[in-house]
Structures are given as C-alpha cells and as structure tokens.
C-alpha cells in the first residue's frame, strides 16, 4: 500500500498558497479517484482511502494496489509528527511513502520525483526525515520559484531575507499561475503513474 502525503498548512487563509501545493496535488488525486477526505483526530490528518489507485486522468485504474491519501493538519514545518503516526498506523515502510511538497529550488512549472535525498532546506521535509529517522522515502517536489523569489533572496539582512522568502511561500498563486498549476499537476500525476 502506498501512503501519499501532501504537505500544506491547514485553514482557509492558506488555500492556493505556494506552500500548500502538496495539498492541491493530493486533492486532485482524491477527486480523480472519487474519494473524500475525513479528519482523523488520532492521526491529526485528513485521510482518504483508495482501494485501487488511479493516477491517470480519464482512464481505468492502472494498479490494483490500494493507497492512503493524507493531508497532515499540523503546519508544514511540523509535518513529521503526523507522517510518523500515519506510517505506524498503516504499517507502511518509508519506501512506500510519497511526500508531495513545494520546492523553492525548482522553477515554477517544473517538478522532480526523487528518492533518499536531503531536505534541501525545506523545514517540512526535514521534520519528516527527523521523525522517520530516514530520508529513504519518495518526494514529489513541485517547483514554485519565480522572479519574486529571486528578489526576496536578494534582501540585505538575513532577517529581511527570511521575512521576504516566508512571505513568498505564503503568498497566493496568481490566476495565471493557478491555470498553469493545473497543467503541472496533470504532469506530476502522469509521472507518478509511470513510477508506481
């Protein structure tokens, strides 16, 4: 069984922000598989169970393998707490976990699927690594970098830089970016379908 986890911040104010791109991808998978999320208090996550995972839009399930979709309701930087609970509860191994998250080192419109990599400075991913005590899990890294991020990174002081980058990841996608993001999500699902 695959445990597919989208990282994001809970709450309406964080919807459609760059840091919540993991939630957007996981919600698309749930929609395509016609399942709904339910909050599990014990696991502190919204959960959707899929008996036959379908990652290819408009086609029948390509696998008989079941999957659990999860949206941790911790904030991004504490995602590891919920991921550890999910792993133990569903008795999965790290190699059966896919974490989907935003990535500031990848240009918007692109993504990378990687295995056993370090966090790259992403505090949510570092939290997962710390709680699982391994980096041997899959990551679908969805690019969010653009010119605004480049400007934010050029601030003079470390505090200004942190504030500017923090503001960038918590900013909402523009309508044009939202339209492009739909295409990116479609490509990410095609890539997951080829891999799993």
Task: Describe the protein.
With about 200 residues, the protein is α/β, with parallel strands linked by helices. The protein has one domain: Peptidyl-tRNA hydrolase (Rossmann fold, 3-Layer(aba) Sandwich). Helix content is about 40%, strand content about 20%. The chain is built from six helices and seven strands. A seven-stranded mixed sheet has the order 2-3-4-1-5-7-6, sandwiched between helices. Strand 2 and strand 3 form a beta hairpin. Helix 2 packs across helix 3 and helix 4 packs antiparallel against helix 5. It is globular and about 50 Å long. The mean pLDDT is about 90. Its EC number is 3.1.1.29. Belongs to the PTH family.
Question: What's the short version?
Answer:
Pfam families: Pept_tRNA_hydro. The chain has helices spanning 21-32, 79-90, 123-132, 147-153, 158-169, 175-195, and strands at 2-6, 38-40, 45-50, 67-72, 97-107, 111-115, 138-145. By secondary structure, it is α/β, with parallel strands linked by helices.
Task: Supply database-style keywords.
Rossmann fold, alpha/beta, seven-stranded mixed sheet, globular, 6 helices, 196 residues, single chain
What is the correct CATH architecture?
Answer: 3-Layer(aba) Sandwich
Residue fraction in strands: 15-25%
Tell the overall outline. Answer: globular
Biggest β-sheet: strands ordered side by side in the sheet: 2-3-4-1-5-7-6
Structure summary, number of beta strands = 7
Helix percent band = 25-40%
Number of helices: 6
Mean pLDDT: 90
What is the C-alpha radius of gyration, as a whole number of Å? 16 Å
Which fold name is given in CATH as the topology? Rossmann fold
User: What is the element string, with H for helices and E for strands?
Assistant: EHEEEHEEHEHHH
CATH homologous superfamily descriptor:
Peptidyl-tRNA hydrolase
Distance between the termini: 11 Å
The biggest beta sheet is recorded as: 7 strands, mixed
Number of domains: 1
Family: Belongs to the PTH family.
EC number: 3.1.1.29
Pfam family, one: Pept_tRNA_hydro
Keywords: Cytoplasm, Hydrolase, RNA-binding, tRNA-binding
